[in-house]
Amino acid sequence: MRFVGLGSAVLLASLLALVGVCSGLSDAPRGVAVGFVFDPKARCDPPCAHAGICIRNNTCFCSRGYEGETCQYANCYPKCKNGGECLRPGKCRCPPGFGGRYCHKVTCDAGCWNGGECIAVNGVAKCICPSSWTGSKCQEAICPQGCRNGGICVAPGICSCPEGWLGGACHTAVCAQPCLNGGKCISPDKCRCRPPFSGPRCAERKKSH
Ligand SMILES: *[C@@H]1O[C@H](CO)[C@@H](O)[C@H](O)[C@H]1NC(C)=O
Description:
The chain is mostly beta strands. Helix content is 5%, strand content 29%.
């Protein structure tokens, strides 16, 4: 089986006049191709779909917007992009992650936050995040310094520290009572003392024996 596809109605009129096969076709909606012979007794089985015309045995001439042996396929111009399917002329059905008339637009279902940009990577919609954010929606801040001791990165470079810890990376312990005699606060309210001092605040001097 073959099909013929060609557009212009003006061309149709002149061609039909040329080959002299006007009978029965004067109301036909679409044009015909150069160089074929129209057979008014032609039979097409299966029949031509979408108002295609059977011009020879098992040869359909398709209406504008359709193609295929029996004119069964719709055409979309511009073509459906990103794996979209042409449902009817000019109407695409888009796969998940794509939208727009020709499926040319990428859509990230959950959106991209914090200035992230939705783009297609190997046909998959994906948020491209600014450098200080990460996660599928760019919802997670990045703290390059790290947040230690149970701190949480709440904004780029900003840690929220648990009680008892301070500093950009929550790396500085807080001792409510300062450590004395050169002792060092090593975790919340815990001093490491320099000899010969001891005690919670390094206030006591060990007896020398
Ligand atoms: C078209 O098919 C019909 C029957 O199927 C046959 O009688 C006829 O001769 C065919 N016409 C041509 C041009 O082959």
